[in-house]
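Sequence design from tokenized structure. All designs in this work follow the same two-part layout: the structure record, then the generated sequence. An example of the structure record is given first.
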């Protein structure tokens, strides 16, 4: 029997049997079961995964979307099976904010698109439409939900939704490009019809307005590179893509210069309307293809938004498809399909306001020698925005004097093409950077010889008055070096200014004997030989060779004649030198190919000695020094 007195509940044990106890326990359990809460410890890493995991990172719906579905009493597992239907249900659901509704719909439509992308559910048209739906709801959340993007800077959800937008744009752009006639992209008045959408294009990338459309659009995120230490990119809005031209390998043309055949592109999707209701009601979308090297941000609904970009992918893909490693050797050998004239490769579209850096590789090499050096320069935001990078690709079998004159002419003709009046800022304060033989050629490009080379060579060969006069008349233009106009700084990296004994090693001499020179070069050299060799001596019966390898010998007459040439006083210069054994006396130090004493130049603004072999240009220390020099160059430019 139960006795109740005031607020106390008293039980008489003598009157309490087994069944009463059981009924009491069941009653207490029913009273407390709906309010029972338990707690357990969660690893901090699991907590972060729960907070940030979503359809893109785990393949499952995010915790945020799960919460929204629970508010509406929807089963999450059912929504995973019918994501599109759940997303449509949210359009009229009550009790949600615009941000909750739009962000959840963006994720659900993205989930649906990925479902259509699976082989067993493959439906390409439905997949494209689902990506467009996801991008629209993400776009509406970011810019039309009533909260400005900068007011959500520190929210995980805005980062997730931005990623939904970027991924949906990436997939929609590449799929639309692959499936449609590319001429649709060139006419903004033409709209491409999908199942439920009409899409037009705006080509805002300078490259595509002036040249043929690419053959492919590839997602930068799908490319992985070996040989590149870092990939440099910028966070922001848009899909990071690479546009692949008809020939993504080394393009050679009669003009002697070309832009990178695989430029980077950022794609955006915008949706018609200026209010949330108009955007959500629209089935009209615009695909924008812009150049992230020329544009840092876009304005959407009055908000300045940083533009996403990948600055490495295009350069890396070009190098991967260029076949430079094979070409470099055969160019040295003078094979029938070898490079005949220097080529300028522009890693960015020409910009009249950015200073030019020109890189020259060494013997038996190619632009591939600069792979990480160039990438690290492009990875520095200040340098990327202030400079444009050109790489010289030239035949390394030719005599030095022929190469330097043809390289000089190629640079001048390229500048003339883009800046006929020479008034652009890009044509002033150019920086030349050369490695190995490229460093030696760089010094020739910033030197003034007058008649000193002619005079020195005629004295070396002891020419009589008549032959001397003929020699001067016929070869004054060839053997006169004039500093390249517009250059105000040079960097010599492992450059054999006074030659190297390695060029006289048996293997080097044997290799030089295998080199084939073009007929026009042989004819010109024959004229030189005719004047330089005295017919009354035995030298006449001995063939004279003038290959690049022989030119690099520390005993070569041309190297000796040019060793003391003065560098133009308007040019500031720097040396970066590798040494394999820095503990040795300075006169014994070498990078294994070029002695320190040959690479060092008096009057340099700076000289950095790095423990390294001959490929010192690829070391982290050399790259940091080069970046320091380029920043210094900017700081010292006249106002």
């Amino acid at each position: 029997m139960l006795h109740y007195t005031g607020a106390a509940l008293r039980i008489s044990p003598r009157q309490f049997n087994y069944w009463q106890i059981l009924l009491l326990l069941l009653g207490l359990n029913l009273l407390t079961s709906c309010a029972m809460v338990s707690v357990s410890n969660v690893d901090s890493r699991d907590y972060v995964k729960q907070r940030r995991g979503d359809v893109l990172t785990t393949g499952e719906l995010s915790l945020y979307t799960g919460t929204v579905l629970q508010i509406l009493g929807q089963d999450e597992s059912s929504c995973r099976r019918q994501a599109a239907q759940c997303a449509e249900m949210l359009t009229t659901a009550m009790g949600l904010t615009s941000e909750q509704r739009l962000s959840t719909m963006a994720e659900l439509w993205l989930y649906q698109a990925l479902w259509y992308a699976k082989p067993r559910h493959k439906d390409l048209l439905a997949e494209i439409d689902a990506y467009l739906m996801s991008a629209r709801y993400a776009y509406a959340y970011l810019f039309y939900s009533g909260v400005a993007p900068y007011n959500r800077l520190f929210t995980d959800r805005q980062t997730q939704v931005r990623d939904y937008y970027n991924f949906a744009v990436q997939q929609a752009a590449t799929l639309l490009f692959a499936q449609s006639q590319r001429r649709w992209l060139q006419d903004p008045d033409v709209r491409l019809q999908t199942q439920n959408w009409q899409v037009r294009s705006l080509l805002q990338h300078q490259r595509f307005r002036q040249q043929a459309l690419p053959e492919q659009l590839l997602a930068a995120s799908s490319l992985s590179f070996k040989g590149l230490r870092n990939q440099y990119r910028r966070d922001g809005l848009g899909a990071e893509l690479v546009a692949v031209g008809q020939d993504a390998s080394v393009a050679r043309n009669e003009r002697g210069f070309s832009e990178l055949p695989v430029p980077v592109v950022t794609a955006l999707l915008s949706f018609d309307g200026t209010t949330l209701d108009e955007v959500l009601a629209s089935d009209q979308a615009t695909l924008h293809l812009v150049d992230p090297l020329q544009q840092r941000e876009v304005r959407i609904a009055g908000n300045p938004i940083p533009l996403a970009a990948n600055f490495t992918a295009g350069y890396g893909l070009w190098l991967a498809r260029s076949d430079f490693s094979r070409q470099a050797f055969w160019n040295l050998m003078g094979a029938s399909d070898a490079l005949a004239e220097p080529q300028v490769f522009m890693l960015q579209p020409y910009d009249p306001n950015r200073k030019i850096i020109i890189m020259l590789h060494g013997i038996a090499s190619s632009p591939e020698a600069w792979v990480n050096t160039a990438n690290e320069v492009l990875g520095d935001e200040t340098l990327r925005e202030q400079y444009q990078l050109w790489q010289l690709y030239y035949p390394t079998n030719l005599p030095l004097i022929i190469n330097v004159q043809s390289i000089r002419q190629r640079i001048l003709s390229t500048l003339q093409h883009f800046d006929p009046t020479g008034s652009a800022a890009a044509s002033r304060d150019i920086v030349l950077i050369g490695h190995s033989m490229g460093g030696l050629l760089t010094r020739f490009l910033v030197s003034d010889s007058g008649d000193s080379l002619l005079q020195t060579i005629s004295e070396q060969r002891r020419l009589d008055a008549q032959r001397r006069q003929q020699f001067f008349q016929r070869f004054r233009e060839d053997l006169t070096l004039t500093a390249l106009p517009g250059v105000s700084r040079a960097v010599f990296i492992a450059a054999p200014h006074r030659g190297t004994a390695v060029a006289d090693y048996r293997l080097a001499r044997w290799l030089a004997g295998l080199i084939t020179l073009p007929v026009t070069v042989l004819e010109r050299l024959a004229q030189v030989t005719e004047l330089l060799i005295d017919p009354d001596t035995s030298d006449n019966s001995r063939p004279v060779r003038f290959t690049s390898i022989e030119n690099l010998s520390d005993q070569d007459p041309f190297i000796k004649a040019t060793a003391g040439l003065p560098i133009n006083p308007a040019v500031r210069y720097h040396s970066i030198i590798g040494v394999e054994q820095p503990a040795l006396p300075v006169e014994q130090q070498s990078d294994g190919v070029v002695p320190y004493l040959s690479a060092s130049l008096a009057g340099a603004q700076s000289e950095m000695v790095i423990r390294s072999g001959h490929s010192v240009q690829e070391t982290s220390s050399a790259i940091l020094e080069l970046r320091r020099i380029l920043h210094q160059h900017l700081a010292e430019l006249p106002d």
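Residues 156-179 form the longest helix (24 residues). We note this feature because it recurs in several other targets discussed in the main text.
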